[in-house]
Write a structure and sequence with these properties.
Blueprint lengths: L1 E4 L4 H12 L5 E4 L12 H6 L7 E4 L2 E4 L1 H11 L10 H18 L5 H10 L4 H25 L14 H15 L8 H11 L2 H6 L9
Parallel strand pairs: 1-2
Antiparallel strand pairs: 1-3, 3-4
Helix pairs in contact: 1-3, 1-7, 4-6, 4-7, 6-8, 7-8
Length: about 210
């Protein structure tokens, strides 16, 4: 398998964690989102991913896009260790947490959104960062509340083994920390984050440990 990835991309980070948790070997193909106007816009990469986003997973000559769809594919083709619980309610809860991050928080602070705000709308760098922090802090505070109120929360987001929810949570926190978001009032979320980063699968997937890290 080949993973087309950018080291700072939280969506790519999610897939790297899942691949590592499942012990699946893969080749990283860096796609730098900033150099030369963005390598994601080259004709060769657009042939794999017409929307010019990362990640793309190439498996058996089929290009798969969208991080959560890729992780669900890995779950179906390599079910051990599972990233989704066995019972339907817990599975739905894991997906709810993951989608809150991937669909409600992340799109508002995606690189192409921030670029449009700054380059096309004329927003200053300071206002762009305020936009980022507002939506990220608001969204992660909601996730912290969800986790702190749920009796399904254990060492990790759901129970005592990492799930799809943890694969999604850790990269979003990494982005939030890089942009200096205030996470001080989110103790459950940060406890889970720290527990995840103690695992090799998460450490090896971190942006700093990628071949294209700067």
């Amino acid at each position: 398998m080949k993973l087309y990835s950018y080291f700072r991309s939280s969506a790519s980070y999610r897939v790297r964690i899942a691949l590592n948790l499942k012990g699946l070997p893969y080749e990283t193909v860096p796609v730098h989102l900033l150099k030369q106007g963005g390598e994601q816009f080259t004709p060769d990469y657009r042939a794999l991913h017409p929307d010019a986003l990362v990640p793309t997973l190439l498996d058996q000559d089929v290009a798969l896009t969208q991080s959560l769809a890729i992780i669900e594919y890995l779950e179906e083709t390599h079910p051990q260790p599972p990233l989704l619980p066995a019972d339907p309610l817990s599975r739905a809860w894991v997906r709810s947490l993951a989608l809150t991050i991937a669909c409600d928080i992340h799109p508002l602070n995606n690189l192409r959104v921030l670029r449009y705000l700054q380059q096309d709308m004329g927003i200053s760098d300071d206002h762009k960062n305020r936009w980022y922090r507002h939506w990220c802090e608001q969204g992660l505070a909601a996730v912290d509340t969800m986790l702190s109120r749920s009796d399904r929360t254990g060492m990790y987001c759901v129970g005592d083994t990492p799930t799809l929810a943890d694969c999604t949570l850790v990269p979003q926190i990494a982005n939030a920390q890089r942009l200096q978001c205030d996470l001080s009032g989110m103790p459950t979320l940060m406890r889970i984050h720290d527990a995840c980063l103690a695992l090799e699968a998460f450490m090896h997937a971190s942006p700093a440990n990628q071949p294209d890290a700067e």
